[in-house]
Amino acid sequence: MIDRLIKGILTGSSFIASVTLLFMMIIIVGEIIARVLFSHSFQVVHELSAYLLVAIIFVGAAFSFQSGSFVRIEILREKYPHKIKKIIEMIFMAILLIYLAVLTYFISILTINSYTLGSSSTSVMRTPLYLPQSLMMFGMLLFFVYVLLRFFKLIIHPGDPNERREE
């Protein structure tokens, strides 16, 4: 059950990040074509692509973690036997969970405050800031749940702590 939830989070988040990246590429190419061929700028592509990049980063965090793209200090873990590696991994995951819980909490507070106060960007788009912040909050929540599930799996199912890929 845990493996299916983990796989669902990874599949969903990587799909959302991929579609977002595709959309970002389309609007940037559209802006380039409009500038070169028609000497016209849409004026909003820079801001919109920045919001989409933030969405890609936050929503894709779980997939990046799973694929080993995050920085880790492997040299410390390589020297120890399997049981010590598992303990180190559990400590790391516990610290990461605390960090993600705090970060998710404060991003949620930021999003709620932006919505309540009606904050918007100062650009031409006047984007309500709670919209891109909601994507950050969603991505952090996905990442938190993913790490929580990995932590439970580490506790319940003994396995190789070096294992990054999910079956």
Provide an overview of this structure:
With 167 residues, this protein is mainly alpha-helical. The chain has one domain (2-156). It is built from 6 helices and no strands. The chain has helices at residues 2-38, 45-59, 61-66, 74-78, 82-117, 130-156. Helix 1 runs antiparallel to helix 2 (45-59). The longest helix has 37 residues, at 2-38. The mean pLDDT is 88.
Helix-strand blueprint:
Elements: H1 2-38, H2 45-59, H3 61-66, H4 74-78, H5 82-117, H6 130-156
Helix pairs in contact: 1-2, 1-6, 2-6, 5-6
Provide the descriptors you would attach to this structure in a database record.
mainly alpha; 0% strand; 167 residues; elongated
Quick overview of this protein structure:
About 75% of the residues lie in helices and about 0% in strands.
User: What number of structural domains do the residues give?
Assistant: 1
SSE arrangement, N to C: HHHHHH
Radius of gyration: 20 Å
Describe the sheet with the most strands: none
Global geometry: elongated
Cα distance spanning the termini: 12 Å
Rounded average pLDDT: 88
The share of residues in extended strands comes to under 5%
- Class based on secondary structure composition and strand pairing: mainly alpha
Helix share bin: over 70%
